[in-house]
Amino acid sequence: MTQEERLRIKITNHEKIVLSHCNELIRLILIVSLVISLSIIAVVVYHFRISIISIAAGGLLLIAYWFFYRSIRNYVAASIKGEMLITKDIYNTNKVTSLKSIRSLSSITLFRINYTRITYKLDGVKYNIRILKKIDSNQLKNEEIIKTAMNIAC
Q: 95 forms bridges with which residues in the sheet?
């Protein structure tokens, strides 16, 4: 039995299909980047003995961290059950939407890490989410799983 056949059986039996397990990796990246940013600011302030340059460098690093934080909050842990897409972000906020509400879907795989971007509408609001998943050579990509589930659901 191929993976596509097993996937179709799971979808028709309304079993849970996990796209990504958890977002602990995202939280770890966020904490490590904050510690690195603060340590760089501390080194710059110590080295320059609190001059205008050090304050500017610290401000630029904090702005860079803020932009990084804004982009990382779109990464979610996701799963499919039946015709529903279930997501959980780094704040442990759950969202459940129909697979029919997905507007766009794209996926890229680099170094065995599958990066999937999904755009969907829920209650009139457009959401952009990103899913990271480490895959083996014999596993299906998230885009293939979602497209198969959407075809069966429709």
A: 87
Residue that is written with structure tokens 């977002």 in the block: 23
As assigned by CATH, the class of the 3-22+75-153 domain is mainly beta
Cα–Cα dist 94/79, whole Å: 11
Tens digits of pLDDT across the chain (154 residues): 687 788 888 888 888 888 877 666 666 777 787 788 778 777 777 776 776 776 777 778 788 878 877 777 788 888 998 889 999 888 788 899 998 899 999 999 888 888 899 999 988 899 999 988 888 877 888 888 888 888 887 6
151 CB-contact burial (10 Å; exposed 0-12 / middle 13-18 / buried 19+): exposed
Which residues have a Cβ under 8 Å from the Cβ of 3 and sit 6 or more positions away? Answer: 138, 139, 140
Where would I find the H helices in 13-95? 24-48, 52-72
State how far the Cα of 68 lies from the Cα of 63, in Å rounded to an integer: 9
pTM here is 0.69
Listed by start position, the domains of the chain span: 3-22+75-153, 28-71
Distance of CA 49 to the CA centre of its chain: 40
